[in-house]
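Notes to self after the call with IL:
- keep both proteins in one doc
- input above output, always
- annotate only the second one for now

Protein 1:
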Amino acid sequence: MGTLENVTTGETVVRDLRTASSHWQRFRGLMLRGALAPGEALDIRPCGSIHMMFMRFSIDAVFYDAEGRVTRVARNVRPWIGLAFGGRGAKGVVELASGAAAGVEPGQQLRFVA
């Protein structure tokens, strides 16, 4: 568990960041979860795109490259029908509650703190 900081703005984006790095963890992601707690998010790596099958709630998806620079922000990705792609160079994604990525924009630098 860790935190996610936006170096560009100086803000803490996530206070309870969990990581999904094994094949099973990445496959499962947030599927079948009821919701995310305030300040909670899931970092999935490696990951360049997501689907929303079997999801019960909308999310914001912040894609980033190998250096932690934001490549794309997909806002309010809807359950069951949503897809999101990270764009060129995306190596991972942070899935947050819908609206929680406010202020995060492509090109900004992220820092993952353990």
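Protein 2 (the one to annotate):
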Amino acid sequence: MSLNLTGDADADQLLDSDPFALLVGMLLDQQYPMEAAFAGPLKILQRVGSIDVQTIAELDPEAFATLCATPPAIHRYPGSMAKRVQELASFLMSEYDGDPTRLWTEGDPDGKTVLKRLKALPGYGDQKARIFLALLGKQRGVAPTGWREAAGAYGEEGSRRSIADVVDGTTLQEVRTFKKEQKAAAKAAKAKG
């Protein structure tokens, strides 16, 4: 199944073909619209000429931050996100020889192991790691034993909780509605508390 996360054929094709681009899109998916975050890797590719892990890791940080901030920026916080993208690339170079697929292939890992590896990535907390694991399982055919359990609610069949569930414009709106409802419920609970 081809990815349809951004509504932009070129951005989705890059995410579909490049695991590092997909990891970067997930990294950018915070305090920013999902589809815009996942379009960020294409902007990086267009400006740098590459989205190769080693190339990104070795770029001058100031020059890379400037490229990321050039309108339209890769994120609403382009400077801090440029730093995080480079930290992610550097980590992948040092721990996985620049091959992000080793996160989910090395040593035939189970779902818990893949989740642990994802959580170790710079910029990836527990929720982001679970969502990415669900994205791998639901849309990339990466289904290590126990991945649904490790992904938690994000791994549920038929859910509309995250980018892992976005396959078209309709599911994007369903996920957006779910997120709005969750925020409203949390706000109401806080007001009561």
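Annotation: The chain has a mean pLDDT of 96. The domain at 9-192 is CATH 1.10.340.30 (Endonuclease III; domain 1).
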